[in-house]
Every structure is written in structure tokens, then in C-alpha cells.
EamA domain-containing protein
Amino acid sequence: MKNAYLKIDIYFYLYLFLITFFSIVSQYLFKQIEKNRENKNVDLSKFTNINNFYLGIGLLMYTLLGYSIYKLLPYGSLIVLNIIWHLVYFIVLFIMGYLIYNEKYNVQKIIALILGFISLSIFMIYGID
């Protein structure tokens, strides 16, 4: 018996974008907290409020991430949706690293990126159910 999944529509892409966005923002904020803690030249009491703010926003982002995953589940099987999400996340981080942080990639990493695009294309062309 075939599962009755929703057809891919604009909401599928919206939830996929939101999952990626919430995950990246929350991890960035948590990383900023650690950078503030590790900085020996800074008075930590000055960063307590900003760290608490970052923590609160980061936790809110993870809550919204969970809700977005919940809303994405009717579109396909759990494993396929997670693979798609992680491929999109990987590709976005790869591009951000190159454009924003001027990271350099070797041939193996570029091949991995190409394979990620191919995998994502196969899922999107042949369905995610």
C-alpha cells in the first residue's frame, strides 16, 4: 500500500528553507556565545546579557525548526526528507563558506558538492515518497 503523501508545493519549499535558516542561525548564535566565552581580553560580565539574548534566540530558532520539520513530514518519508534537508543544508553552508568566509575547497570537496546536487536532483525529479 502506497502512503498518501502531499504533493510538493510552495509550502514544501518554504518549510525546507525555514529548517535550513533556523538551523544555520541558531548554530551561528551558539558559536558566538562560545567565542565570547573564549575571548580572554573581554570582561565576561559585559557579555552576559548578549549571551543570554543569543541563547534565547537560538533556542527559539530550534523550537521553530522542530515545528517546521513537523509541518514537512506529510510530504514524504522521514528518511528521505531528512536526506533532502541535510543536502540543502550542506550545499548552503558550502556556498556560504566560499562566498562569505573565502574558504578554499579541494577537488574532493567539489566532487562531494556535485554529488550532493545530483542526489538532490534525483529526489526532486523522481519524488520523495
Remarks:
- The two ends are 12 Å apart (CA to CA).
